[in-house]
Amino acid sequence: MNDPRYASDSCDLDGLRRWLKARPERLVPLTIRRIVISPNALDELAERASEAMVNRSTCYVIMDRTPMWRNGVLIKPEVVARLRSKLGGVSVIELGEADHPPHADFDVAKDMSARLEPGSLVVTFGSGTITDLAKHAMFWIEKDGGARFEHICCPTACTVTAFTASMTVLTVDGVKRTIRSRSPEQILVDLLMIRDAPVELTRAGVGDLLARCTAYGDWFLGDVFGVDETFNTVPFDLLAGPEERLLGCAAAIGRREIEGLRSLADALMLAGIGMSIVDQTTPISGWEHVISHYLDLRAMAAGRPTGLHGAQVGAGTLIAAVAFEDLLSVGETICRRIQPRFDVGAARRSIEEHFKPFDADGGMIQELWREYGLKADRIAAGLTRWSRVVEGWRSGYIADQLNRYVRPAKVVVKALAEARAESDLAASSGTNDRILAREAVLYGHKVRSRFTLGDVLELFGLLTPTAADRWLTGPDAWGGFCPPNGW
Ligand SMILES: [Zn+2]
Fold this sequence. Notes:
binds zinc ion
């Protein structure tokens, strides 16, 4: 049998289109036309912009006000100067303040959409927040019938998968939400820019990608529990190669070597594409992501800056990897002994009780229930076919598949250590607050409609403060799993 894995890289878009076309699954067409990953990709920007300006009158450059250096040069004025000398007029939109970068907020994207001329060329020069805000401002205009934009995206740090993803993450009523949006047409990843970015951003990029080590297990569980019928293996096969390369060069990324950074950038590009072709983030966003979203929610409610997304996700992935090992060791026994129940009313009360102190005007609980309520109904419906889950455990099918989709915790902890990325959830949030970290583990699955390992652990009675503390303690505490009383 042929190897189903994608064997080339993200820059080979023709090869990627051929690979996708050969798959039998129904996929969303790829609209990205060019990806360049090279030490001097920015040298191409003015030429690409000039080509894209045919039949367009306006070029915007969207960036924040944080000064950035590349190879010893203050790069933002340089980028604008190069574009101006090639194109003539360029409108610069700067967001936030030098010491207060903008938030990826729904209203900020709305404001931006009022400033953009439909059908223009938009160059984003920034990280995930700038990219997501611009993507969504353009998406709104196009959705209302405005002429199609050309978006050239220049990442200034390899932190998140936003650069190639057709969805954005924006804050709505104090809760981060993933919303369908649009992909850029061209992405120019300049590796000297990435090398000179703050190293914690690069490490966060590794953390965000490590979600791949566990998130596919979450998606598979959604299928097994009858909650999510969209499961397929296309993104798994697409990302298998980049994941191997990333794990193999985590130390080189930690040292900011160009070849390591190339693998990181390539993996991020393909991860964004992997989500876009199935029109959802599930292939690389499971329990570890909702744990991170919970931490963001608490930070925003307290009026303090959020921790780095990728740092929180990397530390969350480690917790998920350990918890998957617990599930694998007791899943079959639990299935034989209990028939889980799910009380939708009790779930609603639990959300109201836990989140009330953080909800200034009632909008947050409403927004949370709008999403979780959908999941609650699906979980309750899925449990009516419980015998299917029991049979899956008994036959060994569920364990086999989880072993295929989920990496052991020791692999995750090694990659985090080699990349010098954060592995402690409390530290990754920027607070060192262990009680907050424990609450993120216990309540993270309640902030999204995504069915995750957290939901399964709760159904199985395994999501307890004791278990959370053990997962949070680190490798020394992981052995000797003791099942809770009562099953
Ligand atoms: Zn992420």
